[in-house]
Design goal:
31% helix, homotetramer, alpha/beta
């Protein structure tokens, strides 16, 4: 029985607690939150749970094996660092930290203390994203040409982070997992329309090896909610629309073929291939449930985190570079190590 | 009765001829095309029409008042120049020319010879785009925050121009007309996935005055055809989907309001406004028919071309800068005169 | 503080309990269910709640003011009768009873004992349906021509009732509420494709006064889920699609006008009117919450139930006649009192 | 070279002429129309074509091998009869005739004179409908449970026929072709909302052998245009949406399986099967072109008409019975010979 403490009981915290309450397997025994109203809500929803204003109480509690840090990004580092120093395994909300230096420090701490450090990139644990990885990694799509995502809606404005850190973060995790590719360079353009607020519209481009391009369009001021991702390959193409109740994933057997020996100058060099579309039935499973199970298995040493500190760091590094690029009108920055 | 000659009888030429055959008003009396098969097709479809392989025959024909140049972009300048020098009014296919210098030369020629020079940016003559201009110019949308367009499909690859010149050209004309704004700077990113072919995926960003941003996503390798444009304003927002059989234009009374005096630190500074959606009924009219009528009225001196040489030049200038920026990984270039 | 007992804790029961737990207003103090697993679930989800296998325990409990009967339809009558005889107010799941005689008996009992008898036709308490009633009753739609509903999906097959009792029941309640009209006659056609199972595909028609027709298409064997209702009026028309995340209700300013004096024989007598479409923003509110509040207000004597016993009876009567008609290949039956 | 005459040059006539003008194969040499304006239009669009007010001129012309009758339904019989008596092959617009007696008479005449009699049920020649027939006839869908069609739009009102004859006629042809089944009985319900006009809303049900049911919902007063057909089988299900630009046909591997030996009383007897969806790419071909080619091949004795007189008669017979049923509130009528 693995015992969990949860720091932060806002929007996402209750889902964390619910999913880690697995009879005979794990249990959330304590919740900390600065806001007394949230603590009262936790006590009401989860009778018997211990509540406290001090996160330290969780770190100091020897009965607790692991903590989930479900707070705004600005407190991730301080809390995760303290938890790791106290010998706890850590699951931290995404984005992992505010800076790549902080992320590096957490990775180093976790390594030194032999603790699991996992980032809550929940999307990676959805059946649709896992299916996309299979389709790409098996070669069914052929060479990947582009990843193109539209992720827009009305709000919610964040006080402290721009729209890239709030929305593009999902695409960066999906890209890292599905394509297994590291960017060569990062470029972004963005604008703030509300004085004193961070950028609310942004366009992020990643240059990937082999002429693969990734582009992410995020917007907090759109009239409707859209979540639509295209992955184009030389053999097949995917449209992923996570808002569809069914048929979230459509796979198109379409593309172009090149005509090596055109007989005349006027003859087109490129022919189109229009094949069938296929929407696999993807049984529903709650992603957070899969993720909680995976975190427990990692603590028990049976698995390596899919969304480990290193992945969390790569995502933060891109967000950092993108923000820097955005402040310089799209100036591209090389990705370190690329 | 205004007499017209048409140079080029490929995909679009027959539509030009059909629309300029207005009994008692104008008539296409001659067509030139290098391809004998196209000439035969013209003769069959429009009995009595004169056909020739030589465009010069049209320019030299004193009975012809105006010519429509409906050829690939690489021949626009040479043909339009010759027609203007021969004293003809000119309607030229978009994009106007291959370079801005060529466009400037045509404008200068038309001015000197007092001839009408119009570019066939057909979209400007669609009822939906005209309605968008009214909505923006009347202030109904408030301050414009962004223009965001997705214009993708499978093919058709062009041999000589990249995807920006083929698809983004539509958005540049719409932007120029609807927003009446000139860009401060232009940036683009793009990739070619077919060796020896021009870029087939591209992302174009325009920095406009007042923190307005325009972004255009064009792609020749998409599995499905999408034509979707969002215009976000401080008061209202538009979604324009030209592929919808009806309800092409949806206007959303949505946005954010700022809370100047938050009572507590935790209180959000921004409130959302979720109002009704409204889709005006837009009666169908063939855009090219409206455009043909407008061209005739300009020849008669009763109107000024909406899509005159100056507008054609602005579009070409952006395409030039965008192509340059694309070859330098998105380096932004200032728009001349901005 | 009104005290509630809930009979049945299956799929819908937990929602009933949650919504009637209004601090300072009402509270569910006891739940009965024959299944020990469901009782355990109730005890876990609602700590402190009393659980019992015997519904009678609730009826006999003098602390309980009202009971909610959330069981399969075959037990509605027996349970509701016992509750009313015990002096409880009753909220009963839809359809109200298995027969109209049973419904009449419950109405009579409730009247005699001065108790509130309400049927849980939840749809009536959704903002979209209430807006439809306003649109119809205000005359904005003009004379109502038709109500046409498509309500199909894969399963769930019921053992004891046919697809009309499971799906068409929603349309019958909406029709009764929105149109305020009583049918003149009822006709239905249906088929069973699974030996030994009740009809899984059915088409129900209601003849209403003034040449209004209502038609309901229900199907348990459809590949996709559809919930789409059209209401056609002489002035405007509605499309209601409850599965849309937003824009559930679209109002079309469309129809025909008659030309009284055609000048020629060939001239059409009917002109089409194609106006705008308008989708009012309908703020989300949980219907069951509105309904619970309404039930309490009725108990306190401040309101009359919108979905009272008489309405529940009308719905059951139509379902009875429709089932009878279905077994006679669509033979229409007059609606009593019509 | 087969020579064709066309009677009627209204909405559909020009398409007939265009498709029968196949160089070296067939040619439309004459058109008749009562309206001088239509004759002028024919002469303009098809230079060299002979025009006349008298259909008889076509029948009497020995150069003409076959006539296409493209007039309102009320004149089909008289014109087709005269053409057959004059020894012409006949392609007649759908519905074939106003009465089944007329259809029988035409069949008998064509047989006696050894002439081809074909009805222009164009849908049968679309690639999507032909694919549906293959899917059904190959057994891929399993046993057919139902055919369910929604075919609605705003207008056009017909003066002389009700909405069944105008819209349901398409479904009756598709049903006849795709399912190859003859109805046992016919029932319909319908209403007219415009005084003096035929029924504008109607619901048609066909009882087919083996508990298959067909249902067709047609409406001239709907705010939007819908063309959606479901075919449910025991193994797979089809959704056919002819208005989709691509993915017109979707095939769902979904259904139910019966559990023969439920272990407990509570256990459900029916399990759901949720499999993949598949949308075959269906290359576009103009149906009327395929149909024209087929008519010529039938004249040459190489093929039997798919849409012969017997099929036209079956469709007319159902429309007759449905109209009769509609006037008696849905009273079912047996289909002769069933």
């Amino acid at each position: 029985m693995i015992k969990i403490g949860t720091v932060g009981f806002g929007y996402w915290g209750p889902n964390i607690v619910r999913n880690f309450n697995m009879p005979g397997r794990s249990s959330v025994i304590a919740v900390s939150d600065l806001d007394p109203a949230q603590r009262a809500r936790a006590a009401e929803q989860f009778p018997g749970i211990e509540t406290t204003a001090r996160a330290e109480d969780l770190f100091e509690n020897p009965a607790i094996d692991a903590v989930a840090i479900v707070t705004p990004v600005r407190s991730h580092f301080v809390l995760a660092e303290a938890a790791l120093l106290a010998g706890k395994h850590v699951l931290v909300e995404k984005p992992m930290t505010e800076t790549s230096e902080q992320a590096e420090r957490l990775i180093e701490l976790a390594d030194r203390h032999h603790r699991v450090l996992m980032v809550d990139h929940t999307f990676i644990y959805t059946p649709a994203v896992q299916r996309m990885r299979e389709l790409v990694q098996s070669g069914e799509l052929g060479k990947i040409y582009y990843y193109d995502s539209l992720r827009i809606n009305l709000g919610l404005f964040q006080h402290d982070v721009n729209v890239l850190w709030d929305l593009a973060v999902h695409d960066l995790a999906i890209l890292d997992f599905v394509l297994d590719a590291r960017p060569l360079a990062v470029s972004a353009i963005g604008v703030s329309h509300i004085p004193g607020s961070p950028e609310n519209v942004a366009y992020l481009s990643l240059f990937l090896p082999g002429d693969t391009i990734a582009h992410v369009n995020v917007n907090w001021l759109a009239p409707v909610k859209v979540r639509q991702t295209l992955i184009g390959g030389s053999r097949k193409m995917i449209i992923f629309d996570e808002l569809q109740p069914s048929e979230k994933l459509k796979i198109y057997d379409r593309g172009v073929t090149q005509n090596d020996k055109p007989e005349t100058l006027y003859q087109t060099l490129i022919n189109y291939r229009m094949g069938d579309m296929w929407a696999p039935n993807i049984p529903y499973r709650e992603a957070l449930n899969m993720e909680a199970e995976h975190f427990l298995a990692c603590i028990e040493g049976r698995e390596r985190p899919l969304t480990d500190g290193a992945m969390g760091l790569r995502v933060v590094r891109i967000l950092e570079l993108a923000t820097k690029s955005m402040r310089q009108n799209g100036q591209p920055f090389p990705f370190p190590g690329a």
